[in-house]
Known about the structure:
Elements: E1 2-4, E2 9-12, H1 19-31, H2 36-48, H3 63-69, H4 72-77, E3 79-84, H5 87-101, H6 112-119, H7 128-131, E4 152-155, H8 159-170, H9 196-205, H10 207-213
Parallel strand pairs: 2-3, 3-4
Antiparallel strand pairs: 1-2
Amino acid sequence: MLLSPKYRFLFVHIAKTGGTSVRAALQGRRWADPWYWPMFLCSRFSHLSGHRIGTKLPRHAKVIAAKELLPKAWFDALFKFAFVRNPWDLQVSSFHHIRRERPQFLGNHDNFADFLRWKLDPARPYQFHVDTSIELQTDYLIDLRGDIVVDFIGRYERLHEDFDEACRRIGLRNVTLPHRREAKDRARDYRGYYDDATAELVARHFARDIELLGYRFDDLAG
């Protein structure tokens, strides 16, 4: 999550949706924010008391965290945005990310289909690096009543165009979106990783995301 008082925006970072590139593009503007350093110091001092204040939120915090911690009028005035991704493509990306950077969390399943079945097994013990990628993306966008409270939902499949639109709404010009964490160890077409059974596993688990965000299995990544 990235908060800028000067530019009045809140970026909700959902894992594996291009958020690292978005953060990199906006981070420099955040450092130029005169509020950034007082917020940083307040966050550090508040940590010593054992109670963090809402000036520095976790990287992948849900929007409800900011809504509950920040003053209502101030939260409502922020331009709040996030990016989402086709759930079938996201699971392929997550598999390769874990296999490449944290293979110890594969549960001895080096095959995508086997890993996916194990990953979505409700009897499996919780593992942070595995389970963050099976949380519903829409959970990051809603309040306690289940209402979507972000102002703009961009899509990984058109990341550059939607990032430009977010910057336009914020009022930022000439912001270049870098390409971070480009995967070179996977096929571009995620559909080849699935058979009917594993595609249905994702369809069931992410049914709310698929319905609310309008994704289909055949929506190829851009």
